[in-house]
Write a structure and sequence with these properties.
It comes from Canibacter oris. InterPro entries: AosR. With 259 residues, the chain is mostly helical. Helices cover 71% and strands 0% of the residues. The protein is elongated and about 75 Å long. The C terminus is likely disordered.
Length: 259
């Protein structure tokens, strides 16, 4: 996600340079100003939509508001990228995330597989599970693969630095661990009200940017493109991650607003 946000920041920076070249000096000094026309890039056009049907009023809004919005978006991105780099690549944080991940995932597995035991050291009885499983067998196989991955992680619990060449787990386990942390990490982030609001704004920007790319490439919304099998894998992965993240973020925002 740090790389994704950095790419978005670069796109905003390039557009800021473009509109700054022709900016009114007075407006620029006040962090105001913008372009007389909407951005040609559909991703940027969706990030800075015209709020009025009247073309002259829309032009006025761009000329007075666009630069300020760009600067605010870039300031938010800088904070988010710094937070990501500090949290996702800290060995101490990663170790804590692994332990939290194992605990949460085993609780999930026990619920999914209807196992009452809290013993995370003894493997589930696969034969018994398959005998009593009434749903899709592929779901059971996926859950059991997750269980095996978690146990392999536990066996290597002393070395949780994924970049450490001495980490004993094989590449498959490393990759699965990275994916699991990426999926669960949003729920373990600690938010204050300001930070949560910034995360919400940035994730919305990314969603709009990806959606506009999909529309530009396929002529369809992401949902329609997915239904038609036309949604690119990289776009689908980002949108799926955002859905997971925003679900956790919404919970955090509601919690903070009630505090």
């Amino acid at each position: 996600m740090s790389n994704l946000f950095s790419q978005l920041d670069l796109m905003l920076e390039q557009y800021l340079q473009q509109i700054s070249a022709d900016a009114d000096p007075l407006f620029a000094g006040l962090d105001l100003g913008g372009s007389e026309t909407a951005p040609a890039d559909p991703a940027l056009a969706m990030l800075f939509p015209d709020a009025a049907a009247d073309p002259e009023y829309a032009k006025f809004m761009r000329m007075t508001q666009e630069r300020g919005l760009l600067l605010q978006h870039r300031a938010d991105l800088a904070m988010i990228i710094g937070e990501l780099n500090g949290m996702l690549y800290s060995d101490e944080q990663l170790a804590a995330d692994v332990q939290q991940l194992r605990s949460d995932a085993f609780l999930f597995l026990q619920d999914e597989l209807q196992q009452d035991s809290t013993d995370t050291d003894s493997p589930f009885d696969e034969a018994e599970l398959y005998e009593n499983w009434s749903e899709d067998a592929a779901d059971l196989a996926e859950n059991l693969e997750l269980e095996q991955t978690l146990r392999e992680i536990q066996e290597n619990a002393g070395e949780v630095d994924l970049d450490n060449p001495d980490f004993e787990a094989d590449e498959r386990v490393k990759k699965q661990l990275q994916q699991l942390i990426a999926k669960t990490h949003p729920y373990t982030l600690e938010f204050d009200a300001v930070g949560a609001a910034r995360w919400a704004r940035i994730t919305n920007l990314v969603r709009l940017s990806v959606a506009s790319r999909v529309i530009s490439e396929t002529g369809m919304s992401p949902l329609r493109a997915a239904e038609a099998g036309e949604l690119a894998a990289d776009h689908a992965a980002v949108l799926d991650w955002l859905t997971i993240f925003v679900d956790g973020l919404s919970t955090a925002v509601v919690f903070l607003s009630e505090d």
